[in-house]
Write a structure and sequence with these properties.
This protein is an alpha/beta fold. It has two domains: 6-45; 50-259, Rossmann fold (3-Layer(aba) Sandwich), CATH 3.40.50.12140. Helices cover 33% and strands 16% of the residues. It has helices at 25-45, 73-84, 122-133, 150-162, 219-223, 239-259, 268-276, 291-296; strands at 6-8, 11-13, 54-59, 89-96, 108-113, 137-142, 173-175, 201-206, 209-215. The strands form two sheets. The chain has a seven-stranded mixed sheet, with helices on both faces. The protein has a two-stranded antiparallel ribbon with strand order 1-2. Strand 5 (108-113), helix 3 (122-133) and strand 6 form a beta-alpha-beta unit.
Length: 299
């Protein structure tokens, strides 16, 4: 005869009645331990496991290319994402090449450099095009401290090869400050990094989706931290406030890659800002009130 059921995910489970008649103390304890072990196993079966975690893919181009100028950057950004959001992150990035069979396992690719990079083969170019066209995202981060250096030239050649400009189809273009990538988690209006030499983000848009973002302000330099917790590079000219904005930009990019434009409709933001009388001084953008709100405001 069953005893009262135990609630568990997916339904109810009845346990057989356990009687102590004719049972020794040792047998009673072993029966209880076996039942407890069964419950533990059932609970573990509900877990998704480490394979469900978000993981960066660090793109490596060419055997002789300096592809990792900021070795600790992605781990530190991953730690911040896990702390600030509900995303579970595998902190160690996967090193991938364009023709790898596992390229699709890391839908967020990160390409960094500080000098000229070797372009992929024709097969690699096609693989990157397919990856980005069918849902992947690429962040290109310049660490060379220039907007017209050798790495910048390589990036433009790479993007022209992956997405040739034909007719109305554009290659790299300026991403406007009202794009949803600037409000996917934090409200921002420009990209920040270790430096502040590029006032805007560039990117490639296909079918209304930002598939590749190029930032020349050295995001990785702002994120990098040594094993003792010390930041490896100073942020100039804005100091630690600028570093915080660089982390926020990284969080926004990941949130956009995972969620796309679900926050495109931000009609509620001006109302919330107005009610709270909150004007941020940390670089977050305060949306301007609409005409109706201006007419109703009292001096």
């Amino acid at each position: 005869m069953p005893v009262p059921a135990l609630a568990r995910k997916g339904g109810w489970r009845y346990l057989p009645r356990v009687t102590t008649r004719g049972m020794t103390r040792r047998r009673l304890l072993s029966t209880g331990m076996a039942a407890a072990a069964g419950l533990v196993v059932a609970r573990r079966a509900d877990a998704l496991g480490p394979g469900s975690k978000f993981r960066f893919g660090q793109l490596k181009l060419g055997a002789h290319t300096a592809w990792n100028p900021r070795p600790s950057a992605l781990r530190r950004l991953g730690w911040e994402i896990e702390k600030r959001t509900s995303i579970d992150v595998e902190l160690e990035p996967a090193i991938v090449v364009p023709t790898a069979d596992t390229l699709h396992e890391t839908p967020f690719l990160y390409l960094a450099g500080e000098r000229e990079i070797e372009l992929p083969s024709a097969a690699g170019i096609e693989a990157l095009r397919r990856f980005l066209t069918f849902g992947g995202f690429l962040l290109i981060d310049s660490a060379e401290g220039s907007t017209d250096g050798a790495f910048d030239g390589s990036v433009r050649k790479l993007m022209s090869a992956v997405f040739p400009t034909t007719g109305s189809t554009k290659g790299l273009e300026i991403i406007p400050s009202d794009h949803v990538v600037y409000k996917s988690f934090y409200l921002l209006d420009k990209p920040s990094g270790r430096l502040a030499i590029a006032p805007a983000m560039e990117g490639v848009i296909r079918d209304g989706r930002l598939v590749a973002a190029y930032i020349a302000n050295d995001l990785g330099g702002a994120w990098s931290r040594d094993d003792f917790g010390n930041y490896e590079f100073r942020c100039e000219p804005g100091g630690e406030r600028q570093r915080e904005l660089a982390f926020r930009m990284g969080v926004n990019l990941v949130m956009y890659a995972l969620c796309l434009d679900y926050k495109a409709d931000q009609v509620h933001v001006p109302f919330i800002m107005k009610r709270r009388r909150w004007k941020p001084d940390d670089g977050a953008q305060t949306p301007a009130p609409g005409p109706a709100e201006k007419s109703n405001d009292k001096p």
